[in-house]
Amino acid sequence: SKLNESTRQHYTRLGLFAMAERNATVKLAPEKFQEERISYDVIFTCEERVFELVCEELLRRAGVKSKPVHVINIEIEDNHTESLVGGKTILELARCIVASKDLERDMDGIIEDVGNRMPHRLLYTVAFY
């Protein structure tokens, strides 16, 4: 169905069309973590509910590979402005993680340091694949 003009203008003002266009260049379709069989070193989530679901999924998998994964939640309100600020927090975390020579040793300090410098509440845990 077509959007009426006032709805189209409202969505344009909110930046939803621009956000959808940008997202379309990042991935082809929504992805489900539960269906992924790839092991990650770090997983970022942007909502506590999603953080909990990821942790539950990792627990369900029972850690048979004994491979650690660092799960970090950056609580970001779902709007364009907060997304931009939250993206900067994620980028700073990623920079610190990449610069680490020993992530297992350094991660608690990275979380504390970035958490003190950036405006978002961070949740962090280590789980296992």
TrEMBL record:
Keywords: Hydrolase. This is RNA polymerase II subunit A C-terminal domain phosphatase. The gene is SSU72. It is an enzyme of class 3 (hydrolase). It comes from Coemansia aciculifera. The lineage of its organism: Eukaryota, Fungi, Fungi incertae sedis, Zoopagomycota, Kickxellomycotina. Its EC number is 3.1.3.16.
